[in-house]
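Researcher: Before we compare anything, I want clean individual predictions. No alignment, no superposition, just each chain on its own. First chain goes here; please echo the sequence and then give the structure tokens.
Model: Echoing the first chain and its structure:
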Amino acid sequence: MTQQMNWKIVDATELILGRMCSQVAKLALLGEHVLIINAKDAVISGRRNQIIKNILIAREARDLANPHHGPFRNSRPDMYVRQKVRQMLPKNDRGHDAIERVHVYINGIPKVKEEKYKNQEAIQIKNASSSRLSHKFHSVADICTNMGWTGGSRDASLKSK
């Protein structure tokens, strides 16, 4: 008999990415299983050009010790958000175990995986609403599109055939 895991579900729609990721990282370190849905709808505050410029500068960093491009950033929104959570965890076995308890999806839960996430409890992330922002912000989908994410257009064209 396998017992069902209790999943804490976070809807990332209109949540500030950094605040959400830090609270998800804390929950994961405490042993909770966390599911983030609608990752593409999370927001990043700041000017769009500056956000993209910082990502591209880091991507193109080269020197004698690191002749290749790097550090590598994922352009898919779910992997981008997961990487941000991972960066907020300790770099040891405890952090590695914690990131395995975090699952992220671009939209909702896929129908194939609904059985896995049967026992779920929606949680609210404190102080992370984009309504707190008085200045510009952009969605993760917009930033990832500028990093090369095609938005799943290939998958949509396959479904229409």
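Researcher: Okay. Second chain, same rules.
Model: Second chain and its structure:
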Amino acid sequence: MTEHSQNDIWVAAAQRGDRLALAKLLATCHPRLRARAEARMDAAIKAKAGPDDILQEVYMDAARQIERFEDRGPGSFLSWLYAILDHKLADARRAAHCKIRDVKREMPAPGAPTDSYWNLLDDIYAESGTPSRVVRRDEALSALVACLTDLCETHRQVIQLRFLEGLSVEEVAARLGKSEAAVVALRRRALQVLRRSMDRLGEFTHGP
């Protein structure tokens, strides 16, 4: 089966509400989308976000709008995602340049935004109860960003605040209006859901 044929099957399934099919589509497209995002992000955008942060927003929009996607032939799904990405980049560029700021002072260390995704990957598998380590890391990262769309809103907020923004449990609890115990439980549950979604997409670990 060709890539286009498989993508057609996944698109049809995703439009029927199959979240796994959507995650597979997004994971397949992720490397090309990430390359486009990196190439088109200027310094002002990079001072505030990494490409994977932008792509997480792209994937959320894609998940919400998948029923409206119209298949117009080979490559049309990727082109549709490119259009969403370009729109997000334009929004980010306007927001980044709306105020005069010293971009160099605000610039994070190279690769810092993506480091939070690597750390999240490690935590997903560290809490699985089975000793393992993440391999095929680039492929796993692509799948992770796609799988974040499969979380419910509360789980996604906890993952975003705790792992991707680096807030403490106390800070997350205050932000969400929940107890610290509730945040800890939601964090554990969200990691379990992500692990299951990752395992359904492919095997990314092996034993120590």
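Researcher: What stands out in the second chain?
Model: Residues 100-113 have pLDDT under 50 and may be disordered. Additionally, The two ends are 35 Å apart (CA to CA).
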